[in-house]
Design brief:
The structure holds two protein chains of two kinds. Chain A is mostly helical. Chain A has one domain (8-505). Chain A has helices at residues 8-24, 31-59, 89-112, 117-136, 140-149, 151-161, 166-195, 200-206, 210-227, 236-243, 246-271, 273-299, 304-325, 328-359, 375-389, 395-410, 412-419, 421-436, 444-447, 454-472, 475-497, 502-506; strands at 68-76, 81-87. Chain B is built from 28 helices and four strands. In chain B, helix 3 packs antiparallel against helix 20. Classes of the chains: A mainly alpha, B mainly alpha.
Chain lengths: 508, 645
């Protein structure tokens, strides 16, 4: 087989969808067998996809900023729409994140999901298709389809398998994200009218008048900021996390939140550079508010998932901060932070899931002292907790220090205020850990919980190893994203110093 | 290669014992960790000979770490005099503490985990001192913080231990925030975080300014002050010191290793390492002097009123760290490092001795419940004497050489802050001697105040615990005399080589050799009088002590309650932040954002649709009426348009 012309990305994208169809038609004499078959088929398919993505990473050329594994197929001839896929340094690790987390979620649903397991696996597989598609799409409309498609399986995951307030949470999630997306669609249609195509590499070269950039930026921003989520449009996230089943939370925190940051890097910075320059100070402040405000909120939560959800908002604050500094350290740090947070927050939600499955409560005060009966769990949880705190030697550190370094270079006030998150982040995470894992242990049923079982170890240990490994050897990641970031920033600075439309600038 | 082995052996023993501890068994874990550390200590001593005495400095690369644009930080082991001195101190004390822990923790179920944490700490500390760039230093810096957190909270079933561990981590994080900002500032000034690059080009940036929070500030001063915030956190200087006394919740070997000999001296190491930069930031040095001198006196005054034997020694540590800082502040870096080294020996000795007492007294730490035990534990008693004599600065003992050097250098600086430091230091020296003998008398002499069961159980510690005491006692006796010439005497220029940097006009160590006689003798006089007064007050049964403390009640209360700083921080930071968090949750997220956002819109659309649905009455005449109104409105609008045109 010739790997040169093999449509690897499309194959990876649509294989889960095919898998979902197979899972759907599984029938059996009893529910137990259906459940096992569904999980096994789903896990098999998603592991194949993961293996393919490893091939992709192995084949990835880290010396170039160009899109790789590119596929172009004419889609609607008359409309000049092409189906085009490709990956570069910015997107390649997000694809990895999607393909890594999906099989783990599918495997773990055996013990955490009680009803309609077959449909649950289906939803996760469909979700995987949309996630990979989002990160690989090189056409605006195609991107939009995948980006929005994600909403449907996620909406179902929360609404069907969620907690008691799942309907409220699902609708809130849906409406919040849809509101932003509608604006993005309008912006895309405008851009299509201007450029005659929605091919992303072409759009990057296009260049828009100053005022048009402003409006387009705002339209895209509305969508990405909600996805991120940025303050003050973050309130859907805690509700969604609290109500979502473990697998839903893992995917939501691990991959879905990264779509906003990815969007900024793929659309906003290359396509609307002057608007980015104009809006950057506002975004810095929104990020700083996000970091401090949500950290303080996390400090007083008594629901584990809510606390980690709020900590996610704070961590995403570093991401938006880093991206809009438009410095090498800032942008690379932001991407690294997203990857790192994808691993750590996913693992933290898995950790919460482990004890939730045993005690069926997310209330922090119902636990305590479980280090005695769950020492292995305590160790794994500790590693992720420290990663979230950003301890050097874990992946969390690299992302935080680089994005803060970028911020400090642009503005010392912003940098200092954002860095206060180092203290606040440590406070709430250590507090959570202390309440759940340490202490005399008042709750007898918590002390009866069994330690992590084989399946849970299978999910958590590789994640812990990865958090430590890319903390010690971050260059494995940084080397691969560096050419694309360099290219992105070079174009950005060229664009803001050489405006494409002088006339439009005069109106400034 | 020797350096790599010395640094990474503790990591290897940690990894092995942590991952396979259950498989190896307690005995084997203890053996592996102790053997690893002793080997590491031997290697460090060899390195001391090779690097510090023969002058073979080197930087051994380990592997690449972070590269991002022009920012670059790699793993490396930097071997120069400063780092090998620290390595020797760390590994020798750590080896002693490892050995001691075998005995001290012999009844603890999790002793294997304890040993592996000790090794982890040692590794992180070695990474800190052998760092070649600021980022690796930061790794070690936070790594020791983690190990300290794990070890303070080692008895994690106790609320107080968990609280103390958390407090230590978070207060240190505040310091780390300063350090991180300092690193960013240095990176912006020099375009690098490599030590050599920074130190090589310091002189050309000496007039540079830096815009910080809208103010133009002298760049190097700003960087030094920010680094110093980090140093304050780790070395428990005034303002960020509140975690250290609470850290005594950890097992005593931890207090000896981390909170006396090594980790808390990281701040001194940092400033000494950055002496080439601090030399060009005189204002920063002045601040260092003031903070150090104030810490020395404040901690001493608190220490003399405490009753917990470990807390007394903890405050003593804080006070001695203050001495080191003001030595740094007057550019006497060699003197500070000298005191750091001698202090590591005698303070670790005191802590381990106290541990031996606590061990003998069935885990009692309150000195009011001790007394009358010196005959039962004579070896420990002798060791405590040696430690205290060294601490008080009695001639021939290690502390005498280093502490006097520090004080003389402060005086020799001939500046306002140097003078203040000298006098505060002398006062603190008096108090130091006083509380040391207060401790000895209350602990060992007088009538036994413990219950009979405890008294019957008092016993000398086993050999694994007394041997480390003996090794440290040798250091506490001899380290001062042996290393005087190298650290601060005639051989110091050759010894330190490029590791420390002093501008020609600032050489206070040289000037300290020429100070008047009274400056040299005063510390000794006050120390001896401190001992005498303590003996008089406490030797007579403690009634007099009670009288004095009642007489000076307000001052005693101030000292005893640690200047109410904990209460202040609780009121100023902890409570408001929690309140703010609750406010944001309730009013920010729920009322404002959700209320105006999704929930509000949902409510509006619901109300709106209700109103609209009311219009649809189903009666034909209502609809007809509406149509009429609409028709009239349209016609009149068209008519209006025509008239206007």
């Amino acid at each position: 087989m010739n790997l040169e012309n093999f449509p690897l990305l499309s194959f990876m994208t649509f294989l889960p969808l095919v898998g979902a169809l197979f899972v759907m038609i599984i029938k059996g004499a009893n529910d137990e067998r259906v459940k096992n078959n569904a999980v096994n088929v789903g896990a098999f398919v998603s592991f194949v996809v993961f293996a393919l993505s490893c091939v992709m990473l192995f084949q990835f050329d880290k010396t170039t900023a160009d899109f790789q594994f590119v596929e172009n197929v004419i889609w609607f001839e008359g409309l000049n729409l092409t189906y085009s896929m490709g990956a570069d340094g910015i997107s390649v690790f997000f694809v990895m994140l999607s393909t890594l987390l999906t099989p783990l979620c599918i495997l773990l649903c055996k013990q955490s999901v009680k009803s309609r397991v077959r449909e649950y696996v289906c939803a996760l597989l469909v979700l995987e298709t949309f996630m990979i598609g989002t990160f690989c799409a090189l056409d605006g409309i195609l991107f939009y389809i995948f980006f929005e498609g994600v909403l449907l399986p996620m909406f179902l995951l929360i609404g069907v398998w969620g907690g008691p307030r799942r309907v409220y949470a699902a609708f809130k999630f849906f409406l919040f994200t849809l509101l932003g997306s509608v604006l993005m669609l309008i912006a895309l249609i405008y851009m299509f009218n201007e450029a005659g195509t929605t091919d992303i590499p072409t759009l990057m070269e296009q260049g828009y008048p100053y005022m048009a950039q402003m409006w387009l930026f705002v339209a895209f921003f509305a969508s990405f900021a909600v996805k991120m989520p940025m303050w003050p449009v973050h309130t859907w996230l805690p509700d969604a996390h609290v109500e979502a089943p473990t697998g839903g939370s893992v995917i939501l925190a691990g991959v879905l939140l990264k779509m906003g940051g990815y969007g900024f890097l793929r659309f906003s910075i290359p396509m609307f550079p002057e608007a980015v320059e104009y809006f950057a100070p506002m975004i810095f402040w929104l990020s700083v508010i996000a970091i401090i405000y949500t950290s303080l909120i996390a400090l007083v939560q008594d629901d584990m998932k809510k606390m980690i959800a709020y900590s996610s908002v704070a961590h995403m604050g570093y991401v938006t901060l880093g991206i809009f500094t438009a410095t090498t350290q800032g942008v690379e740090g932001a991407i690294f932070q997203m990857i790192s947070h994808g691993l750590i927050s996913a693992a933290l939600f898995l950790c919460v899931g482990v004890i939730y499955d045993r005690l069926h409560t997310r209330e922090i005060s119902r636990y305590g002292g479980i280090v005695k009966n769950m020492p292995k769990y305590a160790t794994l949880f500790m590693i992720f907790m420290l990663g979230s705190v950003g301890l050097p030697g874990t992946s969390g550190f690299v992302g935080e220090i680089l994005s803060l370094m970028g911020a400090f270079q642009i503005d010392t006030v912003i940098g200092t205020l954002a860095a206060s998150g180092l203290v606040l982040g440590a406070t709430y995470m250590l507090w959570l850990y202390r309440q759940v894992v340490f202490g005399p242990g008042k709750n007898k049923d918590a002390l009866k919980m069994s330690d992590v079982n084989g399946m849970e170890k299978f999910a958590l240990i590789p994640l812990a190893a990865m958090v430590l490994w890319i903390g010690v050897q971050p260059n494995f990641v940084l080397d691969r994203i560096a050419p694309s970031v360099e290219n992105l920033l070079a174009n950005y600075y060229e664009a803001i110093s050489l405006p494409t439309n002088e006339l439009a600038r005069l109106g400034r | 290669m020797l350096g790599l082995y010395a640094v990474f052996l503790p990591l290897a023993t940690f990894a092995i014992t942590f991952l396979f501890g259950g498989f190896l068994g307690n005995r084997m874990v203890q053996f592996v960790t102790c053997a690893g550390l002793i080997a590491s200590a031997v290697l460090s001593c060899l390195l001391f000979h090779d690097v510090a005495l023969l002058g073979n400095t080197s930087v051994e690369p380990v592997m690449i770490w972070i590269t991002s644009g022009n920012f670059n930080a790699d793993w490396a082991v930097r071997l120069d005099t400063l780092s090998v001195v620290m390595m020797c101190v760390i590994t020798i004390v750590s080896a002693c503490v490892h050995l001691y822990s075998v005995g001290y923790m012999s009844h603890d179920k999790a002793r294997a985990r304890f040993m592996s944490y000790l090794s982890l700490f040692t590794f992180a500390m070695l990474m800190l001192v052998t760092a070649d760039n600021l980022i690796q230093l930061f790794f070690g810096w936070e790594g020791v913080g983690l190990a300290s957190y794990l070890l303070i909270g080692f008895w994690n079933h106790k609320h107080s231990a968990n609280r103390a561990a958390m407090k230590a981590f978070i207060v240190n994080r505040v310091g780390d925030l300063g350090l991180a900002l300092g690193i960013f500032t240095l990176f912006m000034i020099f375009g690098s975080v490599q030590f050599d690059t920074i130190f090589a080009s310091v002189a050309q940036f000496k007039h540079e300014t830096f815009e910080f929070w809208g103010y133009e500030i002298h760049a190097l001063t700003l960087a030094c002050l920010l680094l110093f915030i980090g140093a304050c956190g780790k070395s428990a200087q005034l303002g960020l010191h509140t975690w250290l006394p609470d850290a005594m919740e950890g097992p005593t070997p931890v207090s000896a290793l981390i909170h006396a000999a090594t980790m808390v001296t990281a701040g001194i190491f940092l400033v000494a390492r950055f002496s080439p930069v601090y030399e060009y930031a005189p204002f920063a040095l002045e601040v260092v002097t003031y903070i150090g001198a104030l810490t020395a006196i404040v901690a001493a005054t608190i220490g003399m009123t405490q009753f917990d034997i470990k807390r007394v020694i903890a405050y003593s540590t804080m006070s001695q760290l203050g001495y080191m800082f003001f030595a740094l502040g007057v550019s006497a870096y060699g003197a500070a490092m000298f005191h750091l080294m001698t202090h590591a020996f005698f303070k670790a000795l005191l802590f381990l001795g106290a541990g031996s007492v606590i061990h003998a007294m069935s885990n009692e730490q309150d000195m009011r419940k001790m007394g009358g035990i010196w005959k039962k534990i004579p070896f420990t008693y002798a060791m405590m004497w040696i430690g205290s004599l060294a601490l008080a600065g009695i001639p021939l003992f290690a502390g005498y050489f280093s502490k006097d050097m520090v004080l003389e250098a402060a005086w020799a600086d001939q500046s306002a802050h140097g003078n203040l430091a000298y006098w505060l230091g002398v006062t603190a020296a008096f108090i130091t001697a006083f509380y040391s003998w207060r401790l000895i008398i209350m602990t060992f002499h007088g009538k036994p105040r413990a219950d009979e069961k405890t008294m019957a159980h008092v016993h000398e510690s086993p050999f694994v615990m007394t041997l480390p005491l003996f090794v440290l006692a040798i250091g506490a006796c001899g380290a001062g005399y042996v290393f005087y010439e190298l650290f601060v005497g005639h051989d110091r220029a050759l010894f330190w080589a490029d590791a420390l940097f002093v501008l020609t006009g600032n050489d206070t160590v040289e000037a300290a050799h020429h100070v008047p006689m009274w400056v040299k003798k005063t510390p000794l006089v006050v120390a001896v009088s401190g001992i005498v007064i303590a003996t008089l007050i406490y030797g007579t049964g403690g009634k007099f002590a009670g009288f004095v403390s009642r007489l000076l009640k307000p001052i005693h209360a101030l000292f005893f309650n640690k200047y109410y700083i904990d209460e202040l921080y609780h009121g100023v930071f902890q409570k408001p932040l929690i309140a703010l968090g609750r406010l944001f949750t309730k009013w920010g997220d729920q009322k404002m954002i959700n209320g105006l956002g999704p929930d509000g819109i949902a409510k509006i659309s619901q109300c709106g649709s209700q109103i609209l649905s009311k219009i649809q009455t189903g009666f034909v005449y209502h609809y007809a009426f509406m149509m009429m109104v609409g028709l009239i409105a349209i016609i009149s609008w068209i008519f209006y348009q025509m008239v206007m045109v």
